[in-house]
């Protein structure tokens, strides 16, 4: 715990840095190459370095979180792919950063297409890697303790909508059975009141 936040919560904070800065770096480099502006190329270098720093922190917090959070076997497989892609992404952008520093911030005309292509590939992998992180959170509820999931399921079962307000489609929490409910004529979702209100499978 750091300042009251566990590793999973810290990972959720720091994973925004590479998601924002690394694609921005590639965008600056592409614009700099197209418009022939050194200021854009310089912005690409600085956002690349900042993005790598954020990526390092995101990976560390993610690895720690993966050893702490409760998760299923299906989620474990996704977590492994998510982590592997993170290492590949940081390797790609790390090599680009070292290469660029050795070239004093400027690639030659022959090097530029190779570097930009590698950056675009890195961003594509980053997007897919991030989508797996979203799947872990929204499809498998990784980072939310099982006891809390049970509380949330009970809270949703007891939630009522005002008459005339459309009720959202009822879906069970990941790993949790669907909570039975009935809908009144006014469109209000209610928790079951007795045996007759419970749907028969």
Describe this structure in words.
This protein has 201 residues and is mostly helical. The protein has a domain at 7-138: Four Helix Bundle (Hemerythrin (Met), subunit A). The chain is built from six helices and two strands, in the order H-H-H-H-H-H-E-E. The protein has helices spanning 7-14, 16-35, 38-66, 73-102, 111-138, 146-157, and strands at 182-183, 189-190. A two-stranded antiparallel sheet has the order 1-2. The chain is elongated, with a radius of gyration of 23 Å.
Notable traits:
63% helix, 6 helices, mainly alpha, single chain, 201 residues, Four Helix Bundle (Hemerythrin (Met), subunit A), two-stranded antiparallel ribbon
CATH architecture verdict of the domain at 7-138: Up-down Bundle
Shape: elongated
Q: What is the strand arrangement across the widest sheet?
A: 1-2
Report low-confidence residues grouped into runs of 5 or more: 181-201
What is the percent of helical residues?
Answer: 55-70%
Question: How far is it from the N-terminal to the C-terminal residue, by CA?
Answer: 44 Å
SSE string, helices as H and strands as E: HHHHHHEE
Tell me the strand percentage band.
under 5%
How many strands appear in the DSSP assignment?
2
- Going by helix content, strand content and strand pairing, the class is mainly alpha
**Overall mean pLDDT:** 83
Count of DSSP helices? 6
Rg (CA only): 23 Å
CATH fold field value of the domain at 7-138: Four Helix Bundle (Hemerythrin (Met), subunit A)
Largest beta sheet, briefly? Answer: 2 strands, antiparallel
CATH class assignment of the domain at 7-138: Mainly Alpha
């Amino acid at each position: 715990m750091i300042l009251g936040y566990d590793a999973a919560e810290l990972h959720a904070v720091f994973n925004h840095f590479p998601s924002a800065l690394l694609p921005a770096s590639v965008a600056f480099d592409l614009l700099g190459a197209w418009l022939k502006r050194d200021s854009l190329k310089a912005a690409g270098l600085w956002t690349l370095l900042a993005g790598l720093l954020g990526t390092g922190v995101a990976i560390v917090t993610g690895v720690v979180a993966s050893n702490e959070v409760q998760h299923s076997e299906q989620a474990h497989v996704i977590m492994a792919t998510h982590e592997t892609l993170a290492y590949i992404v940081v390797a790609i952008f790390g090599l680009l950063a070292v290469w660029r520093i050795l070239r004093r911030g400027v690639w030659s005309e022959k090097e530029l297409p190779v570097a930009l292509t590698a950056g675009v590939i890195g961003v594509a992998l980053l997007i897919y890697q991030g989508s797996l992180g979203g799947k872990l959170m929204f499809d498998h509820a990784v980072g939310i303790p099982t006891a809390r999931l049970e509380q949330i399921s009970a809270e949703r079962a007891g939630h009522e909508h005002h008459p005339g307000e459309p009720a959202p489609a009822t879906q069970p929490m990941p790993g949790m059975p669907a909570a039975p409910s009935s809908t009144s004529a006014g469109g209000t979702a209610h928790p079951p009141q007795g045996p007759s209100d419970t749907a028969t499978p």
